[in-house]
Amino acid sequence: MTLRLYDDLAHLWPIISPPEEYLVEAQEWLDVIRSRLDIGPGAGRDLPTLLELGCGGGHLMSHLTEHFITEAVDISPAMLEISRELNPQTLHHLGDMRSVRLGRAFDVVAIHDAVNYMTTEGDLRAAIATAAEHLNPGGVALFAPDCIRETFDGPRVVEWTREAEDRSVTFIEYMAKPQPGASTVESVFIFIIDRDGQVQVEMDRHVGGLFPTATWMGLLAEAGLDGEYVRTNAYEGGFGGNLFVGRK
Q: What is the 3-state secondary structure (H, E, C) of the chain?
């Protein structure tokens, strides 16, 4: 199933979720990384290296490029194009976080909320394995799911409006109440695009993974990572604030 937000509606991404809104979260990530990263003496370079899997439009990455030598992977050509324009110093790759292999390792591997699209335990295992395989010894992996099973209390509705030069866009997300024991949650996205009173409405459906902390920690250990859960600040709508950290 094609997700329209990352295809024909990708042009809305910089409007509804602009790069400046990722600054605080990026600083939190930097604090976590700096307190845990151990790349040893004589690394032979000025900056550590960072790979982001599922980079989307590169909005979080844009706050990290001055601190790391960066590379990025995404499955959506449209989102990669947005990220390339925003982060020209970053090497970009088209690929699937479950299977991509770049043939080199990094000091940090990060998967932001794109990890939500791992909807089975097998998918999540594969994504974590990809991160672990691309980590240098002493490196740090970060995973930031929007929701975890223990604390999700759907249904939820969030909405906000952002202004652009030629239009305003109102974004509404409805997250359904998951079935008992389910590992997924369905979301409906509605986009209301207003160009001087000419209103266009678009809709998109997404399914995200919903796993308990025990599953996360077990899969991190299975991949050879020392795992921990770090609570960070939630972003708009109360989502996020979950950070799983794995050290190799």
A: CCCHHHCCCHHHHHHHCCHHHHHHHHHHHHHHHHHHCCCCCCCCCCCCEEEEECCCCCCCHHHCCCCCEEEEEECCHHHHHHHHHHCCCCEEEECCCCCCCCCCCEEEEEECHHHHHCCCHHHHHHHHHHHHHCEEEEEEEEECCCCCCCCCCCCEEEEEEEECCCCEEEEEEEECCCCCCCCEEEEEEEEEEEECCEEEEEEEEEEEECCCHHHHHHHHHHCCCEEEEEECCCCHHHCCCEEEEEEC
